[in-house]
Amino acid sequence: MGTLPLLSLLVVLPALGAAALLQVRQPERLRRVALGVAALTLAVTGGVLLLFQPSAVGPQLEESWFRVPGLGMVYRLGVDGMSVLALPLIALLTLGLVAAGPRHDLDRATLGVLLLTESMTLGFFCAEDLALMLVFFVGILVPVGQLIWRSAKAPSEARTLRTFRAYMVAGTLPLLLVTLGVGVAGWSAGAQAPFGLRELAERGLPESWRLPLFALLMLAVCVRMAVVPFHSWLPVLVARGPFGASVLLVNAHAGLYLLVRVVIPLLPEEWSRAGSALGALGLCCALYGSVLAMAQTDLRRVVGFLLVSQSGLLLTGLALGNTQGIAGALLQSVAAGIALTGLLLVVRAIEARTGTADMARLGGLVRRAPRLAAFFFLMGFASIGFPGTLSFVGEDLLLHGILGAHPLVALPLLLTTAINGVTLLRSFHRTFLGTPAHGHAPVVETVEDMLPRERWAVFALFFLMVVGGLMPGPLLRLRESHVEALVGHVAEAPQGGPAARPD
């Protein structure tokens, strides 16, 4: 099994599945084919996870197939402590979306885009070459954008397309400029692999280029992570974007991976100097997102702004630069991806049955759909750090990391968590326990409870949250060496580590 090109198979398999959907005519068979491809992809990620050695430092299971003539880009894949958990998470979320998503939302085009987005996302997390990362980074965005463009007939969908396009261009152009700059520096130095991440860390970047490159990379990261003030695309996409692909796009945490894989290893001194400002920005983003989530009446936008709030917490954890903060941020990225995807599945199930996600038009659903109410409650509180869940462990590590660095700064984190809890309690009460809106009571009385496939998919996500919360040790050990390496980069930066040497 170790000789198999598992990482290339991960990239190719969902793309082949998307192509196979073009040959399928029956609607019911479309879902079965997509479900089979998603399940097989998850099985391959399980093989990668079994072969991964947590104690080893650096990329593992490396594959190098070809070099692009004239550019120096190498198709080289590998897996490290960050991506080893991201791969099964992406595959699991895709499988859950295909299995439990409303049937009328998952037509041929949406299923194909979902599999293509999965393929590009897995490739992005496995890429060991900066230019290849850029290719996959763009490839993640194109299918979703094409699907929005094809369906943009209503004014709201057209606005979604314009917002999504503007922000994604704003997030991609800086990364393109950084890649070109790195390539020019590598070609001038006669490097054999000008874009190779390992070679870049050993070779270093020119002293005069570091600050501009850092600024461009942080712009790309902040847009992709939906950090305030670059956040407005995320709630719009969650509320109006195509189901499935948009959920996978916002939960993949590609911006976080750019930080831990590119920014911190290559520019540790600049990252260390900006740590306090970035930590403050992250806390402001977390608090701002939680306040905006409380002000929403649409359940989809509530989840969208909760995702913005979570992005701020992740940025804060990394900016702390200590072991607990970084480990907490990386663990919380997994927890938020699982919990908020489960919550979005429940919200979409509500919308599919009632025709709306507006809480002002809902109420009293618990009488007709008690399982729907139960799973909304469970997934909602699993997402904000309820004891016994994986997000509780992630937020606890974040809190201890903040207390160890800046004790007073922990207050915004606690306030953010409290506001998010109030928001979800209020949303649950208005949607399930309140009185049905005037004229909407007949619709509520005909609501069907969750189907078996929906229950099993959401229950599986909740089960993972509980198991991860009760036994977080194996997850932390998988990334232990990677976290220590990141902490080492930041700690050594002021003394002039390898990446801080002028070219």
What does this structure look like?
The chain has 503 residues and is an all-alpha fold. The chain has a domain at 274-470. Helix content is 72%, strand content 3%. The protein contains 22 helices and 2 strands. The chain has a two-stranded antiparallel sheet. Strand 1 and strand 2 (74-79) form a beta hairpin. The longest helix is centred in the middle third of the chain and has 34 residues, at 155-188. It is globular, with a radius of gyration of 22 Å. The two termini are 41 Å apart. 54% of the residues are buried. This is NADH ubiquinone/plastoquinone complex subunit, putative. Residues 127-417 form the NADH:quinone oxidoreductase/Mrp antiporter transmembrane domain. It is found in: Endomembrane system; Membrane.
